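I have been asked to look over a protein record a colleague put together. Alongside the sequence sits a line of tokens, each denoting a local backbone shape. I have pasted the whole thing underneath without changing anything:
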Amino acid sequence: MVDLAAGVGQFADAAGDTYDGIENILGSASADTLIGSAAANLIEGADGDDTISSGAGDDTLRGGAGSDSIDGGLDNDQIEGGLGADTLTGGAGDDQIFGEDGNDIVNGDLGADIINGGAGFDRLDYSTSQEGVTVIIDGASIGIGGLAQGDVISDVEQIVGSIHADDITGSTAADLLEGGQGNDRLSGAIGNDTLQGQDGNDVLLGGEGDDTLEGGLGIDTLEGGLGNDVLRGGDDNDLLDGGDGADGLDGGAGIDTVTYAVSAPGSRSTSDWVSPRLRLAWPPVTLSPMLKT
């Protein structure tokens, strides 16, 4: 362990070392614990599953290879996860966070952060936000509310919302969007997405692609959009609209309603399968025998 704030080292080659006026640390091939000071530090973990943290100062923190845990602390930091499944926390300040390779977990925390997950299936976590968040995974839109205020997000595949009312829009990739508690609006956009409303009265919009929509608790509205979608209402009285494509609809508990919108009277064929627990509602049209209940 190397602790620049305390000015001491422990274990292995660092045992008994003292430090004064040192700003930069290069770790070993083993699992290191590296702690910065109030100055602007450059800390590189190198190989191994490292734990890196910094205090004040505009720091550059690099995990290198291994599954690293990095916390930027105060001020405006640049955090680079490197290879491996890393856990990256920006802390206070306007940080730049790059997950790079591996399936990373990112928490930008306070400040207007630039977050790029990089390669792998990366998760951005807003579950500790004290307000609802509005975010779009497109590398251009600026986040609104709580811990998302000012954030710009790209190459992130999973977003976890807060306990408040969130508005989360996915990307062109296959996204996993989790609303958490609160009355959330989740939009899949393009890609084969999974939208999980969880608690609250949520609105889930699949958009393009073959999507899976799960309402969870609460009175939810699920709209599949284009593609062959699977809609699961969950508990309470939900409204399900498969949209175009061959969709699977399961209302779950409660008195649920399926809607089929048509533009004119006449026959409409559908290859949707519908749970027997659902009530079907549509304008007066003739449906083909392909509708199964």
